[in-house]
Here is the input.
Amino acid sequence: MKPEELEVKAAAELAKQQAMEVRLVCCSSTGCQSSGAADIVARLKADLAAKGLEGKVQVGGTGCMGLCSKGPLVRMTSKAHEDILFSEMTPDLATRLVDEVIAPIAGGEKLDDPVGALGAHVVDLHAAFFAMQERVVLSNNGHADPEKLADYLVHGGYQGLRKALSMSAEEICQEVLASGLRGRGGAGYPTGLKWDFARRMQSDVKYVICNGDEGDPGAFMDRSVLEGDPHAVLEGMMIAARAMNATNGVFYIRAEYPLAVDRIEKAIRQARQAGLVGRNILNSGWSFDFDVRLGAGAFVCGEETALIASVEGKRGTPRPRPPFPSVKGLWDKPSCVNNVETLANVPRILLKGAEWFAAKGTEKSKGTKVFALTGKIAHNGLVEVPMGITIREIVETIGGGTGTDRKVKGVQTGGPSGGMIPESQFDTPISYEHLQQLGSMMGSGGLIVIDDHDSVVELARFYLDFCVDESCGKCAPCRIGGTQMLHLLDKIVAGDGTEEDIANIRMIAQAMQKGSLCALGQTAPNPVLSALKHFSSEFTERLKKPVAAEA
Amino acid sequence: MSEDSVVEDIESEVEEAPEDEIIVLAQKWKRKRGSLIMALHELQGRLGYVPRESAMKLGREMGVPLANIYEVLTFYNYFKLESPGKYIISVCTGTACHIKGSPKLLHGIEDELGIKEGESTPDGEYHLQGVRCLGCCGLAPLASVNGKVYGKQDVTNAHGLLEQVGHDQPMHVAAEAADAE
Amino acid sequence: MTDMINATINGVPVEVAPGTTILDAARKAHVKIPTLCKHPDLEATGACGICIVKVNNTGKMLRSCCTPIDDGMDILTETPEIVEVRRGVLELTLSRHPNECLTCLRNQNCELQALAADFGMTGSELPSVVPDLPLDTSTRSIVLDPRKCVLCGRCITVCQQHQNVWALSFLNRGFKTRIAAAGDIPLADSPCVRCGQCSAHCPTGAIVEYDETVDVWNRLQDPDAYCVVQIAPAVRVAVGEAFGFPMGANLTGKIYASLRRMGFKAVFDTNFGADLTIIEEAAEFKSRLLEGTGALPLITSCCPGWVDFMEKFHGDMIDHFSSCKSPHEMVGVLSKTYYAEKMGIDPARIFVVSVMPCTAKKSEIIRSKEMSSSGYQDVDVSLTTREFARMIKQSGIDFVGIPEEQPDHMLGAYTGAGTIFGATGGVMEAALRTAHYYVTGEDAPRVDFEMTRGLKGVKEGKLTVAGKEIRVAVAHGLANVEQVLEKVRTAREAGEELPYHFIEVMACAGGCVGGGGQPYGATNELRTKRAAGLYQEDQAGLWRCSHHNPYIKELYADFLGDIGSHKAHDLLHTGYQVLPEYKR
Ligand SMILES: Cc1cc2nc3c(=O)[nH]c(=O)nc-3n(C[C@H](O)[C@H](O)[C@H](O)COP(=O)(O)O)c2cc1C
Ligand code: SF4
Ligand code: SF4
Ligand code: SF4
Ligand code: SF4
Ligand code: SF4
Ligand code: SF4
Ligand code: SF4
Ligand code: SF4
Ligand code: FES
Ligand code: FES
Ligand code: FES
Ligand code: FES
Here is the structure.
């Protein structure tokens, strides 16, 4: 395909869409699929066909809109009315929607009340949940159909790549560095710097690897991006490849995400057919292709060196760094591992420029961040907010608090590597540095809210149990330390703990933090330590009462 | 015999070979470096687990030592060395589901089936397992049966879940359907 | 030197070559950093976490064994913080380890025990979390005790990467990780070739030799048993390490003396058997070369680890194998025939003990029915050098002071050619000396064939004998064999000129001097020094070619008849069969 054809294709698709009286997009991500999205789409199509409206009403799928708990969601776009979002749809409601709303609109009517009897199912798109979000990575979710390349093109797809093809590798690195984009996989390392290291390496073969392992339990940002906007990740990887002269791309996606795998494979096929992937991409003479590999249920494989071992078909055990993957990675070749969300930001940065991106966020944390808001919260789901927004704004304004008469006690960020942030600290702005100061971390973006009925001790135990279960077992501090610490926490949870047990927890924590080989073991004590720091009374209350004191 | 027909003969042999699917599978993945895990996924996808004889055969065909295969099989939670049963019930034990009560759901099903997590019922019908986050935390707590996700399962639903399942497709039918695609 | 790295360790400046680890740089600065999982032979994995140090510039704690030192690094190795972390890690490690030192074969010779002693570890408040895992004694060559395993991974690296056998692996993950034979079966059913390299590299008592010293002591006490013993070439230059002798010290005379004091009635030397092997093998080579009586290249078969490996993985090479038994088997069978006859002893009473650098020999003695061609099991027990050292200690013998003695010459006198069998390339060199004589009728002008010596994984060379070019290859460490055999196969299939006429293979790196039953701590430095001890003896000896050994001539004249006679064939040769890699 020639570069100009991108616009031609996009224009054709846009014209087709604009010719429609009504467009309906139904969320086709895992969450809504499990609540029956496929039945809704089938019913809509059948009813529209019965009324002979196929030519005027388009029905399509789209990526997760963030309100999975209220799925299946259907978004209606029409010329005459503002967009309307319908939640908790059923096939019967779909029939009523066609009968009472769509048919008249498609017939050219402008309704006074375009929702009619479905009023109870309408989600207010002006409410804080949506209004306070700023969507970059998720901008296509809720609009474009992830299974259609043309729809991605309509939304500026592959224009970033086109621009990158006209730049030198160094210029691309500089652009991304200037944007201030930092890795969304947890560590927050500047993406442009990382690419530049890989760029400087001389090698016949180099790899760009997309880390789609997303093992943090309670986080599903990357799944939503992979399922909802697969071409954006593809494009991001190709730009990354240009930035470091990489020759091959590898997707590593956890096996628990079959739909994400499916979508990525489909996107690769489509792009290859369109000449966007494969040989002589966009007539540039450059060739690049992808491989897709599945995880197999091991959290530690999110760690980059373990991930590389897994791609090589081995046990996913981390190895010492240095050498870093950018020097010696997959098959001993220079490799760059990037997170899904990091990569999805890239096409937008190339397209709109580094300044546009750098204008969002705080001094050191630029852009937006996607969070998976779950736990004891009224509006749980996926949100994308600018960096620098406060935790309180996310939890209370966007999330609507607990939604029950219980009080929010705190929020866990950073998953099993992170920590508990008490409600008293909620006015802290979201940024890599601020969260770290609080003894937690950004992590990949899980935000789990607990209320005053939840026990911090038990939650800390839960996370530790997770890390013990997921420890690869290679190094002694993590393998044995985690198990011993878990025994001690069990003792405390059972009411048999003593002050010495807490002292031993601290001793083990130090050995793990400083003696473990990879970040899993190094950070595994964090939830316990942060709970001890912010909620120490919850521990002491649980300790065994000294018998002597009673006498 | 012309050269062409020799080629055809070879091709038709390959066509017939699929009766030994492991050989075909091994041939396919062998060409891609480091693809042992992908081959094991495919094998387990067909058989529901990885029996020892199959692992051995796969190893021989792919030129991978059995030790290597077992290192991998026992490292990754996803792989099973024993037949799990017809319905694999997975209860999410991720954080979001945990907070929303998945331990109770898990225990409810345990009681109902009379087995513990990680076990199968004696009749080979059900296998119960805890899994880490299925990525639908918004619908917590969550369970899945043979890969199909069921959201917002409150505790009392343990029974309901099983009932739903009883009408679902048995696993091998589902696998065949997937293959046919 | 422009690109040297300059850094400081505890304030002391060091200058080292790029790529040097912090650990090695520290050694240069006379700073000792404790380690557990790192073995000088093997690539560091960073498993134990004991060797952490602090990089003062960044505040980072790093593993010194696997981190290259960088320009300008300011490294601290011994602050209270570092010591506290190391102690914590060690305390955790010990909580998952049984405290069984007093009844452990590694007692006083254990890296973990030494570490605990260095740290002055006293009690711990952590409960013991040792899992209940069974021993694997199935091979009767080595014993696995996964409870004592610290999961350093050394054995696995050796078995998989250096030996390419893949008998051992990690199973499971996290706290449940353990070592086990491939696919969780008894080791004896796995491809294990019994080389014992895993045991030689283990820092603890988790893999040890199958101990048979008690059996030997019992026989020595038994008035009805007539115990004879032989020592392998490589034993004499290694056993001294257990008694404070310098590396490579040759202690043959002291060993003979000690064995007599233990109660052995006759003390033989496997070097004699090595000479005999050469006589038979060189004859075999000559007839294959000149008369085309068998396949070329001829491949040596005196290493049982290699024989097992070939039978399991390279069955197509059987025809190339020399049919000669290994030297100690030859001495064994002759003890119960030739010696018994000459001395008028009922062979049923004779109990043959071999002292070997090798764990594979423990299995070799029952490998096939030809190992009993005397009518009895030819060798009754094969001990390793490590077991032998323990027996000396148990016997109360002052090994350091004991005066040297001579062997019983009938099966104990030997030439330098027999001695060098213990080092990689030695068999080849010895065979070339005698083959030259067989082919040309005269001794080679120079008997040193340097091309076969040294620690390069595969050594190749050629020489011209009677106008004929002979190409040879020497491989040691089983992972190095593949490339040699592949060359042979490729040439064979293409119908081309064979790349070699004669190949020597030893399973262990360095040959038997680096054997799996040798004292611990083998590094290339140690292997080189042990080998040097053997080459020195060869150099200084009266006879340097096997065919010069007068006792061998006597053996043929009095007992065997001609070289390659029927009797020689029955007693000194064996056959091979293709074996499955897995018994189940
Ligand atoms: C135990 C562990 C799990 C991790 N899991 C993930 C993950 O699921 N996804 C991810 O992108 N990064 C994960 N990381 C971080 C990666 O190692 C790596 O830093 C990241 O993929 C780099 O991409 P980025 O620079 O775009 O953030 C994990 C790290 C550790 C130590
Ligand atoms: S810290 Fe834990 S997960 Fe990381 S290498 Fe060590 S044992 Fe494995
Ligand atoms: S830091 Fe760890 S890996 Fe390195 S030498 Fe010490 S114990 Fe071994
Ligand atoms: S392995 Fe070492 S530390 Fe363990 S019991 Fe044996 S001697 Fe003691
Ligand atoms: S060191 Fe201690 S435990 Fe060991 S034998 Fe002596 S007294 Fe007993
Ligand atoms: S004896 Fe040799 S082959 Fe057997 S497990 Fe040990 S290293 Fe592997
Ligand atoms: S058996 Fe020995 S060498 Fe092997 S992992 Fe365990 S401690 Fe290390
Ligand atoms: S390989 Fe070594 S130990 Fe084995 S028979 Fe030959 S010389 Fe003796
Ligand atoms: S090289 Fe020597 S010590 Fe090693 S297995 Fe062979 S004969 Fe035994
Ligand atoms: S999955 Fe449909 S809104 Fe999230
Ligand atoms: S925690 Fe259950 S789906 Fe994420
Ligand atoms: S000695 Fe290197 S980490 Fe164990
Ligand atoms: S018996 Fe050889 S030193 Fe080997």
